[in-house]
Structure formats: structure tokens, C-alpha cells
Amino acid sequence: MKSRFLSTSLFILAACFASGAHADLASMLRDIDKQAKSDLMNFNKKLSQQFGLPLPQVDLLLKKVETPSDAFMVLHLGQMTGKPPEIVSDTYRVHKKKGWGAIAQELGIRPGSAEFHALRRGEFALTGERRERGERYERRERREDRREREEREEHGHGKGAGKGSAKGW
Predict the structure, then answer these.
(1) Using an 8 Å Cβ cutoff, are 86 and 114 in contact?
(2) Handedness of CA 75, 81, 84, 89 (dihedral sign)
(3) Is the predicted pLDDT of residue 50 greater than 70, yes or no?
(4) Which of 18, 41, 129, 145 has its CA at a distance of 20 to 30 angstroms from the CA of residue 3?
(5) DSSP result, the chain
(6) 68-81 vs 85-95: helix axis angle to the nearest 10?
(7) Residue 168: pLDDT above 60?
């Protein structure tokens, strides 16, 4: 009885955390859509400036996607991965029902990476200011790589003297 209660409680707790992470991205996308609906011309200019895309290409992209926030995400994922908007929009078209996490994975963003976590938390904004490809994320990944390397060095590799668990030997 206790184990059933505990497992149910843990499941509910995990579901709450998962929905909270999704709410950040969802609220960020809603804010972008509101911003676009209030002033579409300014929105287009900001996309053009932030991602270095000519206005006619921004207009074309907005016609290919369902919402203005989807256009922002296509351009942002393109910036994060270094892929052109055409490839990202094709991936979006094929996988849009699976969500932005699945699209990011298809584009090569590893689950658990700093970029993937930033995506889930909605840690980006439409500023209209140009940034180079993923500079913040690259710093985070270098820190994560360094931590992993330090952990490996601290624990070391086995020396092969263990008995192992191979069956049939």
C-alpha cells in the first residue's frame, strides 16, 4: 500500500515538473504571438534584424508556418544549430505535431544539453538584436564537458581486475 502511494505521488510530482517546464516555453510562445498580432510589421523587422534574414524571406517563412511564434522558433533553432531556415522549416513541417523538443532533436540538439534545457525553459526572446550562433549555449556546453571530464578523471576507469557479470563464462 505504501509503495503504491509513494509511486503515485512520485508520478504526480514528475508530471507537475514536466508541465511546469513546458509552461515556460508555451508562455514565451504566446507572448511572441501577442507581440506579432499587435504590430506585425515591427515583428517582421525584429525577426529580420535578430536573425539576419531579409524581410521578404521573413514574410515567406511566416506564410509557411502556422503562427508567428513558429517562425521565431524556426529561426532560433536554425541559429542554435547553424542550419539554414529552409532545412529547419522542412523539419518543422514534418515533425510539428511532435512538438519543438522533437524538432530540436531531429536537428541535432541533444536531450540533456544546455541548448535543449534552454529551449524547454524558453530562455530566449525576440529582441531585434543580432547575436552570433549559440554563444551562450557554447559556453554552457564547454562547462558541462569540463565537469564530465573532471568526474571521469576523479573516478577513473576500471583496471580490468573485476569479476564482471558476463553470463556463460
Answers:
(1) no
(2) negative
(3) yes
(4) 18
(5) -HHHHHHHHHHHHHHHHHHHHHHHHHHHHHHHHHHHHH-HHHHHHHHHHHHT--HHHHHHHHHHSSSHHHHHHHHHHHHHHT--HHHHHHHHHHHGGG-HHHHHHHTTPPTTSHHHHHHHHT-----S----TTHHHHHHHHHHHHHHHHHHHHH----S-S----TT-
(6) 120
(7) no
Query: Would you say residue 18 has pLDDT above 80?
Result: no
pTM of the prediction? 0.64
Beta carbons of 74 and 92 less than 8 angstroms apart: yes
**For residue range 77-102, what is the model confidence (pLDDT) as tens digits?**
999 899 999 999 999 999 999 999 99
CA–CA dist 65, 57 (Å, integer): 13
Single-letter amino acid, residue 101:
G
Length of the chain: 169
The packing angle between helices 2-38 and 114-121, to 10°, is: 70
Q: Return the exposure string of 51-80: e unless at least 16 CB atoms fall within 10 Å of the residue's CB, then b.
A: bebeeeebeebbeebeebbbbbbbbbbbbb
